[in-house]
Amino acid sequence: MIAQRVRGITPFLAMEVLERAQKLEREGASIIHLELGEPDFDTPACVRDAAVSALHAGWTHYTHSLGDVDLREAICGFYRRRYGVTVQPEQVLVFPGSSPAMMMLFSALLDPGDEVILSNPGYACYPNFVRYAGGVPVWALTHEEDGFQFRPEDVAGKVTPQTRAILVNSPCNPTGIVLEPERMRTLAGLGPLIISDEIYHGLTYGDAEEHCILEYTDNAVVIGGFSKAFAMTGWRLGYLIVPPSLSRPMQALMQNFFLSTNSAVQRAGIAALSCAEADVERMHAIYDERRRFLLGELKRLGFRIPVEPMGAFYVLINARHLDTNSLRLAFDLLEKAHIGVTPGIDFGTQTEGFLRLSYANSLENLAEAMRRLEAYMARI
Length: 380
Ligand SMILES: Cc1ncc(COP(=O)(O)O)c(C=O)c1O
What we know:
This protein is α/β, with parallel strands linked by helices. It folds into two domains: about 5-40 and about 280-380, Aspartate Aminotransferase, domain 1 (Alpha-Beta Complex); about 45-275, Aspartate Aminotransferase, domain 2 (3-Layer(aba) Sandwich). The chain has helices spanning about 5, 15-25, 45-55, 70-85, 100-110, 125-130, 150-155, 180-190, 245-255, 265-275, 275-300, 325-335, 365-380; strands at about 30-35, 90-95, 115-120, 135-140, 165-170, 195, 220-225, 240, 315-320, 340, 340-345, 355-360. The mean pLDDT is about 95.
């Protein structure tokens, strides 16, 4: 009954933890959610206002299939200002979130058997997008000893005639690593198309430098979106920036499968790029404070943290001294300590025995989660 390509899709364990947590909450438990990659902030008011005004002003129709041209121009302006790169509106394709954008991208790129090089650990959904489109994920392992950095020389060793693309994600989910500029430059020079998931841009801390892959090569696709830095997960707004040769074939996919992305939401996206800077800065500063608090607490509790996370809103901790099976540990923490965390195995074999904690939650909740974790550790 069920198609082969669907049977190959593995569950997203962060969602499995969340769904179990929600069941416990319905039974009366008070759970602290650190399993979600979702800002706890509301979307900036100027963005919400822009969406309401857009609805009143009649932005209720299909837009251009590539996306509202004003939004695409605003995205080009944003990349020019922030990274000094020039892209044309025809290279920008707007989707209801970066997730559908990835689905269309891999459908457009991959023939059966084509390979995409992914880092292990990495975002849990990437291999599923690749497999669904008929491709084969090829893993470049990264290691705890060198802070899970994506090593260009290891990636180079994985390139074959079947390699269609190399995927990089900086700041990285789940490690919070920000790829060093020199590593990005070397990866960009390896030959294959580079797909750069930049969804966590705007969430980089300390002196880590945030670079767009287009600073190093034109043979690249940028995956971007409004979900994270602008706290707009529920709006569903993301985009791709593609080389000109990919734009027209992908437009045919969009015309057939999406027609267009929500019109008023795209107007909200334009507002986000023009009016939300102060709000984004405020949220960023709060994330940074939480990051430092959580790192301090986790170290105090004796966890090994392979690399100090400098981006996104995650901390990855080695919890093998508690249990080498991260899925079992995550569910045990949920049942006994009422803390939701994501098991490391969700991100690949290299992070089995690790847990990912999200600090997209208030300082008070983080402090309470650490008290519960400490009590749990004292018990076991
Ligand atoms: C690395 C990464 N890429 C892409 C996404 C998808 O984001 P969205 O579909 O909300 O744009 C996520 C969501 O957690 C993510 O962590």
